[in-house]
Please model this.
Amino acid sequence: MLSKTFILLSLLTHSLLAQNTLFTFEDNTIETWKKNATWKVERDTNSNVLSLLKRASSSFNLCYNPKVSFLNGTVTVQFRANSGHIDQGGGIMWRVQDDNNYYIARFNPLEDNFRFYLLHEGIREEISSANVHLSKGWHSMKIIQEGNHFEGFIDGKLYLKSTDSRLQKSGGVGVWTKADAMTSFDDLNISTHQ
Model:
């Protein structure tokens, strides 16, 4: 039987090794982030948000922080699908190695689905999918990554569980949309641990 002291020390050690980074976009700066489309921090009703204003010439619109080193932990973001005829919505990208290698969690209100993808050498592959219908407006998305296992949540509800071992290195974290999906994001919170 484990002692209470051992359990407490384990919890303290885990919390000391954890690192939290929150991007609220209130400081209005994303200059050091990698972008391939026109992203802008703009004022919304109550706060500054990061919004896609003009799509990239490629299929995917990327905005990520390469200085964040994410391997295992949790990433959450608030998102709102604003418009799009070909596509809508978007989500989180993590373990970003470069513009052609990363994981994606994406909600698409046109198709009412939430999916995990791997982009490997520029080719996108679906890993798992769930049917999800959301009302218009702001919602939360969360991924939890532990080794090769990851889970996806929307508004606190677990929808996706998957395993994939093709991206094993730590990498950047950011947000992602496809085609003409004009989406806003806020409160990108990254919690990493050893």
